[in-house]
Design brief:
By secondary structure, this protein is an alpha+beta fold.
Length: 413
């Protein structure tokens, strides 16, 4: 959780509270910088006052106090600088390094080996931070102090007086006071990291559970999808089957009466926008009743199927043949043929049809009568065409069967 800090907390517990409640590293680093500023201000302010009170008669000591107050003001204004957090971290680290080096070079006469206590404090403060920026600066500054001490200060005799012990006691007391806060900060860091870890573990468990749930849901959805897909295929097959049953004859697989009549309607509608000529032909098989009566309906059905195959085999691919009743077929000649061409075409079909049919051990000889009505000469609607084609077919029956008759006005009379 990212905590937006509107203003700098005034107390160490307030800072620790924000660190404890935040999982945002930038916020945590900002709060650590605040702690560094508090520490820096306190040390430098006390150091400047004590140094001035004890050595105000020395001009150099007064200047040292002024410089410490200047460094103190740098710590005071740092939290209010509108800079990136990482830049502020580097800036505070530089200030701490300058303080350590300044104490070593300028106040060694009063502090003596106590400077190592100051260095130890710096190490403690920088070690608890989430980043290692300040620790790097402090390490370099302590290295410089060590070199300076070995080259210069080791040759200067130091007298352990009241000022040294007072300074050392103050620093030790400061360490004792600051240790609980440092412990609290470390514990806060641990609690935060542990909380983040446990949160991640919990989220991982939840994600795994969600993954398993999603996988199970996906498998279930896939099963449902397959079932629906199969149902859809079955419905489509049934729909096609019902369509076929509604538009095709079950025995011959030829278009039925409805399909033939629908096609007649379509051609008549087309004639309203363009010139259309076609023939409606009724075909009735001669003596079919004798086949059923003498050989049985089973043979009759097989004969009808063979008759349909023979018709289909001999008609033009542009024409439409269908079964409209027991032994009656209808042929729609959808081409613009002259009467002579249509007669020649139908006579060829008739001659092919009179060839013997072989059904099992039975040889069947039969014929067909053809009645023809032309559109638009013999009718401008399907009722007239059907009636006139039927009349022509019955005329062919009257004339001895096995012949072709075109509709004439005399037939209507």
């Amino acid at each position: 959780m990212k905590i937006k800090v509107k203003k700098m907390p005034r107390t160490i517990p307030g800072i620790i509270k924000i660190i404890n409640e935040s999982n945002d590293m930038d916020t945590i680093e900002t709060m650590e910088n605040y702690i560094g500023c508090y520490y820096g201000v306190l040390i430098l302010l006390i150091g400047a006052i004590v140094n001035f009170m004890l050595h105000h008669e020395l001009k150099s000591s007064v200047l040292d106090s002024v410089f410490m107050l200047l460094l103190c003001s740098c710590f005071v204004i740092t939290p209010y600088l509108k800079l990136k957090t990482r830049i502020i971290t580097h800036w505070i680290s530089v200030l701490f390094s300058v303080v350590l080096i300044f104490v070593t070079v300028r106040i060694y006469d009063y502090m003596g080996p106590a400077i190592w206590t100051v260095a130890f404090l710096n190490i403690i403060i920088s070690s608890i931070r989430t980043t290692r920026v300040m620790l790097n600066y402090v390490t370099v500054s302590i290295l410089f102090v060590s070199i300076y001490y070995s080259l210069v200060l080791s040759r200067i005799p130091f007298e352990y007086g009241t000022e040294y012990y007072a300074t050392q006691i103050f620093l030790i007391a400061f360490i004792v006071v600051i240790t609980p806060f440092l412990h609290l900060i470390n514990r806060t860091h641990y609690n935060r990291v542990n909380h983040m870890y446990m949160t991640e573990v919990k989220q991982r468990v939840e994600l795994e559970k969600m993954y398993h749930d999603i996988a199970a849901t996906h498998a279930e959805l896939r099963l449902k999808y397959d079932e629906l897909n199969e149902k859809n295929k079955e419905l489509k097959r049934n729909e096609e089957k019902l369509y076929h049953m509604a538009h095709y004859d079950l025995i011959t697989e030829l278009p039925n009466r409805k399909t033939i009549m629908d096609r007649i309607h379509e051609l008549i509608e087309e004639s309203k926008t363009k010139a259309v000529y076609f023939y409606m032909v009724f075909i009735d098989i001669d003596s079919f009743k004798k086949i059923n009566d003498t050989m049985g309906h089973h043979v009759g059905d097989l004969f009808i199927k063979q008759a349909a195959d023979r018709f289909k085999k001999n008609i033009d691919k542009e024409d439409l043949i269908g079964r409209i009743g027991g032994d009656e077929f209808a042929l729609v000649i959808q081409r613009n043929l002259r009467r002579e061409e249509a007669l020649f075409y139908l006579d060829r079909i008739r001659m092919e049809f009179i060839k013997p049919f072989i059904i099992g051990d039975n040889k069947i000889n039969t014929s067909a009568s053809f009645g023809v009505a032309a559109f638009p000469a013999d009718g401008v609607n399907h009722s007239e065409l059907v009636k006139n084609a039927d009349a022509a077919m019955y005329k062919a029956k009257e004339l001895g069967k096995n012949n072709i008759q075109f509709f004439t006005d005399s037939m209507e009379k």
